């Protein structure tokens, strides 16, 4: 399975509640924090929803 490392590069301050919840669901709470996720349709959708706040690297 394909894995990605996602890193939060922008703040969630002044973002809608659903975007804040998506970031927490991805395992990100602070700027420059990284998390590794296995790519599934659900995770890909979450990444797409908040892609303007993230940096995504394939592993």
Distinctive features:
59 residues; alpha+beta; Ribosomal Protein L30, Chain: A; three-stranded antiparallel β-sheet; 2 helices; 3 strands; 27% strand; Ribosomal_uL30_bac-type; Ribo_uL30_ferredoxin-like_sf; ribonucleoprotein; Ribosomal_uL30_ferredoxin-like; ribosomal protein
Number of continuous helical runs? 2
- Helix content, binned percent: 25-40%
Task: Quickly count the domains.
Answer: 1
Structural category: alpha+beta
| CA-CA gap between termini | 10 Å
Question: Major sheet: order of its strands?
Answer: 2-1-3
Strand content: 25-35%
Please report the total strand number as a whole number: 3
CATH architecture: 2-Layer Sandwich
Predict the CATH topology.
Ribosomal Protein L30, Chain: A
Low-pLDDT parts are: none
**Which class in CATH terms?**
Alpha Beta
Report the CATH superfamily. Ribosomal protein L30/L7
Summarize the helix and strand pattern as letters.
Answer: EHEHE
Backbone shape: globular
């Amino acid at each position: 399975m394909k894995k990605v490392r996602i890193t939060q590069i922008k703040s969630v301050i002044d973002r809608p509640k659903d975007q804040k919840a998506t970031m927490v669901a991805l395992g990100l709470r602070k700027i420059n924090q990284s998390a590794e996720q296995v790519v599934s349709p659900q995770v890909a959708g979450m990444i797409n929803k908040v892609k303007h706040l993230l940096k995504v690297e394939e592993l």
